[in-house]
Amino acid sequence: MDGFSGMLEALAPEGVSLLLEQHRPGLLDGWCEKLLSQPLPRHSLWSEPARRLERIGGLAGWVPDHFPLFFFNERVLEETAAALSARRGQVRTETADRDRAAALLAELDIMHLGERSPYTLSQGETKLVWFLVQYAKAPRWLLLDHLPSGLSPAWQEKLIGFIRNRIMAADTPPVSWVLGALPGEEWYEPLLAAGNWRRITWESAQKILGDPG
Amino acid sequence: MECRLDNLAFSWKEPLFRSLNAVLTGGDLIWLRGENGSGKSTLLMLLAGMIPHFQRGTAYGGDIILQGRSLKTNPPKTFFPLIGYVDSRHAGLYLLNESLEEELLLAASILNQSRQEIDLFLDETGEIFPDMRGFTRCRFSSFTPSERCLALLLLYAFQGAELILLDEVFKTADPECMMVWEGFIRWLVRERKAALVYTCHGLELEGGAVWRLQGGDLVI
């Protein structure tokens, strides 16, 4: 187990999700950005830091708020299906992947985006699709900083409902959700009621996570 | 300042706006609302001239007339420094220096203004944001995305922008930063008579009006 998974395992072991209470939004995103961008400018793609990054990519999904996101497929449905095939270590998608992708899009109520190019989506739609693609990779941890931002109240409710259902369904392999939030916000209460959560301040978490920069 | 939407129609691949008509004048504070995907950001990009000069859809009908000139046929640089456009996704890209102080000095040199005019601006805005001078000296690399957006807004304010477009810039602002945002917005609208259009889910600023995008139409 390398440093990254060790840190997150200490905070959110299997079956436990994590609510990080931040005194200001964006701290979790800032930490992830530093961690993930750090190796790239200075090292080749075959270097140990880059390989470490690849291992992190297989373990964690991240839904950032402010960074340009990259998609590899021309349609949202295919992008989601590709994430499902990637979790099996395959590049080529199969019919079963596309069927499962369609089911996931329907579950989040974004089936109408399935045939769209990811690059023609609005900010909020991009966030929903990126979230679903990250979830489809079946990461051990899924990190979201301030989930409601950029979404209308109706879509916030749908996304929270989706996560709640996934927690109740006890996904296999299990996902630990890692959410950044301001203390006292209401949106996360339905999620906390649905599963096994650990609540911790950002300052306490940072003692374990450290400063990747 | 007057900005007029004249039968504005636009399509990316699918039609997004059918025929939008509206007028913005100095001192207007507009909350642009709509579901995700209704075209809020696209409308701001049209008002900023980003569309059609940097990005194109498949159809652009009608026009936007700013101070008597077409935004469709005149590129955004020809309107400088009239338009201020802050988009949370790309805020950092518009900042050329390492701190706001350096940005202000660059802007002053472009606009043939002196250091004293920067000081005057900082004194004036210091009433809204007491730590304004400290903020201008901080490095952008230490800023949160919302603070980067705020720095860009201040730069536009200094340059004298009169049509200010804010796309989802408050979405991760903490309460303290939000107070500064609100203070500046009110100051720009009241004192500078700027027209300001912002998008943000669930934030209605007192004293403003609502424009709602719904099914390809603009409901005012």
In short:
The complex is a heterodimer of chains A (213) and B (220). Chain A has 213 residues and is an alpha/beta fold. Chain A has 9 helices and 5 strands, in the order αβααβαααβαβαβα.
Helix content of chain A: 40-55%
Q: What is the chains' assembly state? A: heterodimer
Helix segment tally of chain A = 9
Average of pLDDT of chain B: 92
User: Would you tell me the structural class of the helices and strands of chain A?
Assistant: alpha/beta
C-alpha geometry of chain B: globular
Number of helical stretches of at least 4 residues of chain B: 7
Largest sheet of chain A: 5 strands, parallel
Helix content of chain B: 25-40%
Please indicate the count of domains of chain B.
1
How much of the polypeptide of chain A forms β-strand, as a percent range? Answer: 5-15%
The CATH topology name of chain B reads Rossmann fold
| Overall pLDDT of chain A | 87
| CATH architecture grouping of chain B | 3-Layer(aba) Sandwich
Rg over alpha carbons of chain A: 17 Å
Please report the first level of CATH classification, the CATH class of chain A: Alpha Beta
Number of discrete domains of chain A: 1
CATH architecture of chain A: 3-Layer(aba) Sandwich
**Low-pLDDT stretches of chain A:** none
CATH topology of chain A: Rossmann fold
Strand order of the largest sheet of chain B: 6-7-8-3-9-10
Please explain how this structure is put together.
Chain A is 46% helix and 12% strand. Chain A has nine helices and five strands. Chain A is globular and about 45 Å long. With 220 residues, chain B is an alpha/beta fold. Chain B has a single domain, classed as 3-Layer(aba) Sandwich (Rossmann fold), CATH 3.40.50.300. Helices cover 33% and strands 27% of the residues of chain B. Chain B has helices spanning 40-48, 50-53, 100-110, 115-126, 132-137, 145-159, 175-190; strands spanning 2-11, 15-25, 29-33, 59-66, 69-70, 83-87, 163-167, 195-199, 209-214, 217-219. In chain B, strands 6-7-8-3-9-10 form a six-stranded mixed sheet, with helices on both faces. In chain B, strand 4 and strand 5 form a beta hairpin.
